[in-house]
Amino acid sequence: MSYGSSFFFQRSVLLEAAAVDVAPPPAAPKADGRPELRVIIASRYSPSAGAVYYNDLLKYLGERLERRITLLTRSSYAEAMKLIEEGGADIGFICSGSYVLLREKVPVEVIAAPEMYGRAEYRSYIIVPADSSAASLEDLRGKSFAFTDPLSFSGAFYPSQRALQLGDSPEKFWSKVLYTHSADKSISAVAYGLVDGAAVDGLIWDNLSAANPDIIARTKVIERSPWFGIPPIVAGPGQDPALVAGIRKVFLGMRDDPQGAVILDGMRIDRFNVPPADWYDGLASVVSLLRDKGLKITF
C-alpha cells in the first residue's frame, strides 16, 4: 500500500454533492506595488471552505506585513508539499503529517501553531452515522470507510495504525475506502450515509458542531486518538529569516491586538504559539511504525 498514490482506492463523485455548503472563495487580489507573499493552504477543509475560513486571517497578515497575499490551493496534500519543496510557496498552512514528511526532504521552519480549545494539540476522531450500531473501530471491519488525504495524519495515518493494531492492513480491514480530500467532506459522507465511517480531524468536527450543527447531529464519535501536535504554519526552504521573524511576530501578537483578537475568535483559535522542537516527534513515530509494517508513505 502506498500513500503516495491512490491506485486501489475508489472515490465517490457523490461526495462533492454531499459536501458542507460554503460561500465561494474570495477573488484573487490584483497585483499592486507591494511585495508578494505566496501562501499555500493545504487545508483540512475543502478548498472553498478553507478559503473562507482563512480569508480574514490572510488579509490581516498582508496588512500587517504590507505585502500582497497570493492565496494558493491544491487538491491534495502531496501537490501542496511539492509546491513548498520546490519553492513555489513562501509559507504554508499544512497538516501535521505532511509536515513530518516535508521536513524529511527539505529544511522547513515552523513559524507558529494555533492553540485551540486550550491546547496546541489535536486528535483524530472515528465517526459513524448517528443511528449506527457501531461502538468501536472493530465494528467497522468489512465496512466502507472515508479517509481524507493520503498524507493526512488524522484522516489516514492514524486509522491505518489502528487497523494494523486490530490485525489487518488498511486495504483488508475495510471493504472499501474512499478519499474525500478534506475533513468536512468526510463528515458529510458519513452524515449522508455514503460510507459507514470515517476518520477526521477532531478540531474540524468540533468547529462544525457550532457552525453546522445539523450535519454534526447526523454523526457521532466512537473513538478519539491520543493527542498529537496541531497542524502548523511553516516557512518553505530558503526564506529570508527577517521575513519569517516578521510573520511570526504578526501571528504571536494577534491576541493582544483588538482586530486580531476578533479574527481569532471567529476562527475559534485561542492564540498562536511557537511549539517546542520535539512537538511533532510523536507523529513521526507513527509514520515510522507504518513504514516498518510495509506502508510506503511519501509524496
TrEMBL record:
<protein>
    <recommendedName>
        <fullName>Phosphonate ABC transporter substrate-binding protein</fullName>
    </recommendedName>
</protein>
<dbReference type="Pfam" id="PF12974">
    <property type="entry name" value="Phosphonate-bd"/>
</dbReference>
